[in-house]
Amino acid sequence: MQNFKLKILIFLTFYKTGGVFLKELMSRFWAGEHRALARVISTVENELPGKDDILKEIYTKTGGAYILGVTGSPGAGKSSLVDTLVKEIRKNNEIVGIVAVDPTSPFSGGAILGDRIRMNEHALDEGVFIRSMGTRGSLGGLAKTTKEVVKVMDAFGMNWVIIETVGVGQAELDIMYIADTTVVVLTPGAGDSIQTMKAGIMEIADVFAINKCDLPGADRVEMEVEMMLNFRDDHIKWRPPVVKTSTFNTTKGIAELLEAVKKHRNHLSEKGIFLKRRQERASNEVLDIINYQWERLVKHHLGRPGQVSELLEKVTSREIDPYTASQSIIEWIIGDSGSQKSSSQ
Ligand SMILES: Nc1nc2c(ncn2[C@@H]2O[C@H](COP(=O)(O)OP(=O)(O)OP(=O)(O)O)[C@@H](O)[C@H]2O)c(=O)[nH]1
Ligand SMILES: [Mg+2]
User: Fold this and answer.
1) Is it true that domain 62-271 has CATH number 3.40.50.300?
2) How many CB atoms lie within 10 A of CB 107?
3) Among 10, 20, 152, 322, which residue's CB has the most CB atoms within a 10 Å radius?
4) What's this model's pTM, rounded to 2 decimal places?
């Protein structure tokens, strides 16, 4: 008994200080402190206690940031391009959050360090916040976590949130659906000839950047992309602009690239697409949560003896079909939670 009381005491103390800690953290976050932002992101990213409260608290403050996705083959110059693009954005004093999604691939192990060094230039700039996220260990959940981190940056008051991903796997492609505008980075290298590009990545481009245009062959890639676009059937009547860029020496094309992004942004809002997409995302989000909660509820019942398990046994023994069983399970759970509610009233 003594032991039990002690446990309760420890729990309550922890719970209370946890709550106080969170409150203090969030007040620093709302005051615009970068260290608090980093802490909030870590809490969300690592699913630490307080994550749900944070996500609930910030939601109404999201929606202000413009979300830009930058994707392309490994080594295409995405980080360099984001870096120079941010310098261009900062000329207007707008503040920027960057989420660099590091690939798990062992081949690009060195790139992460490279990103940090390159982007370190912004380290002293209060208007820029950079966060690298590893894909290792979070397979499948990556899109969800990235979405949440983007939301945190958005609520923090960023005018822009830029997500850099290597456009190789499905998870990376999924991330690009979070973006309002997606820039696909190509290079004049032979390996980047558009015939060899992964099909999906070409379709998600709102703007093409042909980077490393200081190297020979950029005109050819540009021609290939324009030719491909002639065959593209586009629903939203937008022909992606193709901009040649170089982050070397001249930073050629960077202002044009930002212009192209802004043009796309205007196009989306003029045609009402921006609003429609945001509405769709909001309802998808609610549906996703309902699905998740519902699955949890069903799994909870599956693990216990009773009506649901009996029905499943009957499906196994072919006494009833899975469709009828599912229908009965849904009706039973709805009835059960309904009766629980009314009995607790
Ligand atoms: N010639 C040339 N090289 C460039 C240019 N931009 C970037 N690079 C070089 O390309 C290499 C890769 O650049 P990153 O910016 O790390 O490319 P990334 O696409 O972010 O690479 P990962 O994140 O590893 O996929 C580096 O050695 C850069 O110096 C450019 O405009 N011209
Ligand atoms: Mg990079």
Assistant:
1) yes
2) 9
3) 152
4) 0.83
